[in-house]
Hints:
The complex is a heterodimer of chains A (300) and B (325).
Chain A (H helix, E strand, L loop, with lengths): L1 H28 L1 H4 L30 H37 L1 H16 L2 H12 L4 H11 L2 H15 L2 H8 L4 H9 L4 H24 L10 H10 L9 H34 L3 H18 L1
Helix pairs in contact in A: 1-3, 1-12, 3-4, 3-6, 3-7, 3-10, 3-12, 4-7, 5-6, 6-10, 7-13, 8-9, 10-11, 10-12, 10-13, 11-12
Chain B lengths: L1 H27 L4 H5 L3 H4 L2 H10 L7 H13 L14 H36 L4 H13 L4 H15 L19 H38 L2 H9 L3 H38 L5 H10 L3 H29 L2 H4 L1
Helix pairs in contact in B: 1-5, 1-13, 6-7, 6-9, 6-11, 6-13, 7-9, 8-9, 8-11, 9-11, 10-11, 11-12, 11-13, 12-13
Family (chain B): Belongs to the binding-protein-dependent transport system permease family.
Protein name (chain B): ABC transporter permease
GO biological process, one term (chain B): transmembrane transport
Amino acid sequence: MRGLLNTLLANRKAAIGAAIVAFFILVALAAPLVAPFDINQRVASPHEAPSAEHVMGATRMGRDVLSQTIHGTQTSLIVGFAAGLLVTVLGTAIGVTAGYFGGKVDEVLNLFTNISLVIPNLPLMLVLAAFIGQTGPFVIALIIGLTSWGWGARVTRAQTLSLRQRDYILAAEMLGEPAWRIIAVELLPNLISIIGFNFIGSVLYAVITEATMEFLGLGDPMVVSWGTMLYHAQSTSALQVGAWWEMAAPCLALVLFGSGLSLINFAVDEIANPRLRTLRVPAKVLAALTNRTANQGGRA
Amino acid sequence: MAFLLRRVGFYVAAFIVAATFNFLIPRLMPGNPVDIMFAQAGGTLPPEALAALKETFGFIDQPWPAQFVTYLKSVFTWDLGLSVKFHPLTVNEVLLRALPWTLMLVLTSSLIAFAIGSLAGILAAWRRGGSFDSIGAPIALMMQAMPPLVTSLLALFLFAIYWPVFPTGYAYEPEIDPGFTLEFFCSIFKHAFLPIVTMALAQVGGYLITMRNSMINLLGEDYIVLGTAKGLSDRRLRMAYAARNALLPTVTSFAMTLGASFGGALVTEVVFNYPGLGYTLFQGITARDYPLIQGQLLIMTLAMLTANFIADVLYVALDPRLRKG
């Protein structure tokens, strides 16, 4: 009975998380339709406080904050999902290759993974972004994707190493199956919970990192996203003059979207853990996964 | 010993990779790397200083390999060039002036988060499924989703602007003379309080989860059962038997988080106008001070590698199996 209740609760977490994420995706898709004002027009007086007409107030330039947040959702989500996808594809490819082929291949790839883990991400991204100049959303997604695959690769490799010893993989090898087929048909389906965990965590990390980079002045200030909104609010001293609403809207969006993703990941973790336990590597994988989430908090 | 030597070798390799990024990135950009790198420098630096700066970064009239060797030589003699924004200071001087403040924030906040998070993790694991565990663990996970940027802005607005209990910037009041006086230390404490609390909040959840999971895995071990059978007190079993061994993964996580929280410090310092590395870097980014931006990557990498090395040493001290190999 208790187990049933737990599963239900777990599903509820996943359901709430999925609902939040779906809401943001819908807002992003319908941004031009649901935004009440044109984001490039002066529609209010500078730093106008929230009112019935401007629910989240206006910026110093007289732009409607709610409309900007809605349009910003588009940019932030595209960067988040694109970078998350890139991180997951790179991490999975490198992790599975290293774990499956072993030997020299593993040594080289593992060395690269470990080096990428000890070079601090944010400072490296700042160097890249500074040299590229006014970085648009796609460049930021690319930079995040290329620098942040280390954790995914390490976790995937650990799990592949343990799967590699299983009888069904040996059986497939005895049958003379080609390596690509063993990886695609036998390995990847059994790695799906780790890949999913990696992807959701990476999207969350990418959305936060994009906002951070833009806040530090490394984005394209003409693009409207949650990060550039915070950047403009900071450079016009919005908080100091009491215009907290300029910061509140993008911050709220970041926290809400982040909570949605974490809820999904929490549920994935709960559902996947018993399976991990039967594979006899819970300690290693769990530690790696939690280290990873710990880092995502700190790194951004 | 062999273990530690191998680690040092790995760290040297990682540091060279970081330096290689610095070397390659300007050269891979479209256009002339010298023009890109020193676009802002022409206005502020005298010509002879500019010539020296070019040589530091390996822009000499020779092929790439020779340029790379020249650059590595500068890096390993810790000559990071001249700052464009803070002329006439060198990058080295600018970074070293800011480093103590960042170190203070990072170390204090990490130690506080480590202590609180690990203790909470021990308690959560000991009564797993209990009320503390079922409330604490999800909260800890949710806190991971709070970007440090948001927590910093919120803390700044609530406790420095709306209720002006704490200052909105600087490391100490400018009218106080730095020195070993009580007044000076109080001022430092007051200015560092909000940054440290926000940074600690960002990390505490991670330690709770790591410690909890690591403890839970150990509590099923035979020696814990034996300890219970011997009639050891709960407290002794929890701290001296389970927690001592469960600390091992936390130590690795401490090193990783320490390096990561240098990154977190960047944002917190910018929000609180705190004169550490992050704030200095922010000024450098705005002025496109490339030597400074490159220098911070090296010093951050060095900080991360040092943290990892300390973790390795602790690991050897805590885990007897490593002392032989």
